[in-house]
Here is the input.
Amino acid sequence: MVKLPDNQKRRPVKAANPKLLAGDSSMIQPIGDSNVSIGRRYWARQLIERQTPERPMYGSTDWLMLPNDHPDKVAACVVAAECWATIADTLEADLRNEVYQSQKAFKRGEDAAYRASWEAHRKQFPMPRRMTSFMERRARQLEAAKPRPGDYMGRGEGA
Here is the structure.
């Protein structure tokens, strides 16, 4: 458990959505579904549609040779920006999914290690063929504790 500094308090944990815990990422809504995102994508689409079929890739030598107001140069910048913006729109869902998959993989490895350890223990210490009940074991103990012929019983009274 993480130790927090004295000046910080733990926030109460919100009830988790069972579908999210089960790995159902359809419940995760990307941030990009807002009106701002839709407006951004509409504006970007207009600039990208002005490009020519020979649009160079952003940052390439051909892109650097174009004048700054050339539609291909602007379109390449907008395409690169939209790639980053799209990643940002789904970043939370992608990270949540990545953490979930990592936890599942860790748990599978942990379970496999436990099973291997359990099997090794079973081989080293095999179970008896038949388990005896407590009553049977106690009866054997009492039978073994009874005096046998020839046992020295100690010094008796008056001896």
Notes: Residues 31-89 form one domain. Residues 8-32 have pLDDT under 50 and may be disordered. The chain has six helices and no strands. Helices lie at 18-21, 35-48, 61-65, 71-89, 91-124, 134-145.
